[in-house]
């Protein structure tokens, strides 16, 4: 099964090994004709909930964002559209490092994330980076952009693979060079069934 229930919303299972790749996996059937059934980020609630599901935001932040989206639906739609656009550019760049247009789009959001980053310390003195964007509804996108930029700067980028499964195209990290499918239980088994049917 490709999905799980998170706070009453269907979310794609996490199987990619990195939040940036997980964002790309919120669309099903890359390279196939678009359709509403392919979209996991169907509304801003889904985007905010996904960011928590992918461990980019904590539960209180997700709740605040969902409440803010209800107060400002137009701003939430803009933030959702920007996240979807970033998702497409990021996937293109991960699979084609020479795509200059995709790089510019990803780098622009990474710059916004860097500009919104603040070094903070909690009551116990634990220091961490937090994001304080001008528009709080951009928080899921910027958190993902920051994480994706980190991936792009590491050797792990060379281990990104796309599932060849029919109507899939999900991304995952394959550092050992042995993984073919996003998940053997779904895409791998479907391919085995088709191969068996073709032989018989």
UniProtKB/TrEMBL annotation:
Signal peptide: none
Highest taxon in the source lineage: Bacteria
UniProt-listed InterPro entries: ABATE (IPR010852), ABATE_dom_sf (IPR023286), Znf_CGNR (IPR021005)
Pfam families named among the record's database cross-references: ABATE, zf-CGNR
Domain Zinc finger CGNR: 160-200
PANTHER family named among the record's database cross-references: BLL6575 PROTEIN (PTHR35525)
Protein name stated in the entry: CGNR zinc finger domain-containing protein
Organism: Micromonospora rubida
């Amino acid at each position: 099964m490709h999905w799980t229930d998170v706070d009453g919303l269907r979310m794609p299972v996490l199987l990619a090994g990195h939040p940036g790749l997980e964002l790309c996996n919120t669309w099903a059937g890359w390279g196939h004709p678009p359709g509403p059934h392919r979209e996991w980020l169907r509304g801003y609630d889904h985007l905010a909930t996904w960011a928590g599901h992918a461990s980019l935001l904590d539960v209180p932040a997700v709740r605040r964002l969902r409440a803010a989206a209800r107060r400002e639906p137009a701003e939430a739609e803009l933030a959702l559209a920007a996240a979807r656009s970033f998702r497409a550019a990021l996937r293109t760049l991960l699979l084609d490092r020479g795509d200059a247009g995709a790089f510019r789009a990803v780098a622009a959001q990474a710059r916004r994330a860097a500009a919104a980053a603040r070094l903070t310390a909690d009551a116990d003195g634990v220091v961490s980076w937090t994001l304080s964007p001008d528009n709080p509804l951009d928080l899921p996108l910027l958190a993902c952009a920051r994480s994706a930029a980190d991936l792009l700067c590491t050797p792990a980028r060379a281990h990104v693979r796309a599932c060849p499964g029919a109507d899939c195209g999900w991304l995952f990290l394959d550092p050992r060079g042995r993984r073919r499918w996003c998940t053997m239980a779904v895409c791998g088994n479907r391919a085995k069934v088709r191969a068996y049917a073709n032989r018989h």
